[in-house]
Input
Amino acid sequence: MRDRWVLVAVAGALSFVAMLDMNIVNVALADISAALHIPSATAQWAALGYQLPVVALLLPLGRWLDGTGARPALLAATAGFALCGALAALSPWAAWLIAARIGQGACAAVLFVLMPVLVIRAVRPAVRGRAMSVPATLGPLGAVTGPAVGGLLLDHLGWRWVFLVKIPFCLLVLAVAWKAMPDDGASRPPGRRALADALSVAGGLAALLLALTLGAEEAAWFLLAAAAVPPLWWWLRGPGGRPVTGVLRATGLFRAHGAVLALGAGFAAMHYVVALHLQQDEGVSATATGLTVLAFPLGMALAGPLGGRLADRYGSRRIATTGAALTAAGLFLLIPLGDVWSPPDVAWRLALAGLGMGLGGGPTQALLMGAAPPDRAATVGSTVQVARSLGFTLGPALATAAWTLAGSGGDGARAGLALAAGAACLAVPLLARPGRRVAAAPERTTDTVST
Output
C-alpha cells in the first residue's frame, strides 16, 4: 500500500477549519447583535446553531457513513460547509444567519466523522501514529486560535469576514480531494430508520449540550439534562444504538473514550479558568492574556509530530499515556501559583501541558481508530468526536461550578484548575490499561442505512 500523505493533509486542514469555526464566531457576537439589531441572547445562536448539530448528529452519521462512499460524502460536506459560510456572511437578518449556521454545523459533523476515517485509509499501520497526529494536533490548534483570528478579522474587516475566512481553505480541499481521493462508491441516502435514529440522538444530545452550556450561567438549565434521557435511552436500546455499543464492547474502547472525554474537559476547563482569572482578577491586558494562553498550542504544535513518530516506534498506548501524564503535570503545577500570577509563570506551565496534549493526541486517535473494525471505522470516529465534544462542553461548566463554590478570586481559580488537573489525571489510568473486550452480538438485518 502506498501512503497518500496528501489525504492526511486534507484531513488536517478540515480538522483545523471545522474546530476554528467552533470558537471564532464568539468574539463577533456583540457586533452581530448590533449590526442585525437583535438581542445578545439571539446572537448567541450564531455559535450554538453550529455547535448543536455538530454534537447531535455525530452518532447517527457514523452509522450512516459506514455504509456509504466516503469520497462523495466528503466532497458534498466540504462544499456545503463553504456555501453555508457564504450564506452566513450575507445574512440580512437573524433567522437567515441561524439557519445557515445550523446547515454549516450539519456539514461539519460529516467532516468530523470522516477525518479519522480518511487518515486510517490513507496510510499503512506502521505510520498511523504520525498520520493521526496531523488532524489530532491541528484540530485543537484551530479551537485555541479561533478567538485570536476572529479578533483580528473583526478589528480590520468586520464580522462578516469571520464566516468568509474559511472558504478559500474549503475550495483548496475540494480541489485536492477531488483529484486524490479514490472512488469508493456512490453515496446512499439514509433510510427511515436512520432518520428516526438521527432525530432521537439529536434531540437527546441537543438537550444535554444546552443544559451544560447554559447551566454554567443559570443553574436551573441543568434540569434540562433530564429531557435527554428518554430519547437517548430509546436509541441505545434500539437497532440504531446496539451496533454502536456493540462495537465499543467488542474492541474494548470504552476506557479510551473516557480518557478522551476527560482530557477534553481538562483542556477546556483550564483554558476558561486561566483566561478569566488573568483578566478579571489579575488585571492582565487582553493582549498579554492571549499571548500567555498561546503557550499551550505552541507546546502542542511542537510535540505533535514527535508524538506520532514515537507512537509508531514504541506503541500508541505507551505514548498516549505519557502525553496524558505530562498534561496532568502541567495543569497541577498551575494550582500552587498563589494569589499573584505572572504571565511567564503561567506560560511555561501551559507549555508543559500543551507538550503533553500534543504528544498524546495523535497516538490516542491512532489507538482508537486502529482498534476499529474496517467496516465500522466511521462509527468509532463518531463516538470519539462525541466524547471530545462533550468534554469541551463539560469542562467550562464544571469549572464554573467549582469556582462558584470556592468563592471569587484566587480560591475559585485554584478550584477550577484542580478540577481541570484531576480530569487530565483521570485519563492516565484509562489509557494505560486496555479495556476488556467482549464478543460482539450479531446485528439484526433490519439495521440498515437505506430503505
About this structure: Residues 158 and 195 are 38 Å apart (CA to CA). The longest helix spans residues 377-406.
